[in-house]
Amino acid sequence: DLTEDILTILHLQLAIMKARENALNHLDPRKLTLWKVNIPIDDDDNIKMLNNMSHKINIKQDLSGVELLLIDNQEYINIANRNISYLP
């Protein structure tokens, strides 16, 4: 569950691993790459690209994504003020 207890990137990685335990049970949580992207709900092109999983998405290039690193822990996560989604 995404709760107020998630304060760091590692906490978020562990919560995702727990939520997707069956699909990700072979993966070390620290190897799970997380990206920070801003996709407005009315951005039809990017929404279509995300829904069309038949091709590989370059998150950095296609969505202006920034990789979240474990050393980014000084930027604490406030679940109450953010929309957090992940792709299965």
TrEMBL record:
One of the Pfam families matching this protein, by short name: Crinkler
Cellular compartments annotated: Host cell; Secreted
InterPro entries: Crinkler_N
Secreted recorded as keyword: yes
Keywords: Secreted
Keyword Membrane recorded: no
Crinkler effector protein N-terminal domain location: 8-52
Cellular component aspect of the GO annotation: extracellular region; host cell
First-listed, main subcellular location of the protein, grouped into a coarse class: host cell
Name assigned to this protein: 9451_t:CDS:1
Organism: Racocetra fulgida
Organism lineage string: Eukaryota, Fungi, Fungi incertae sedis, Mucoromycota, Glomeromycotina
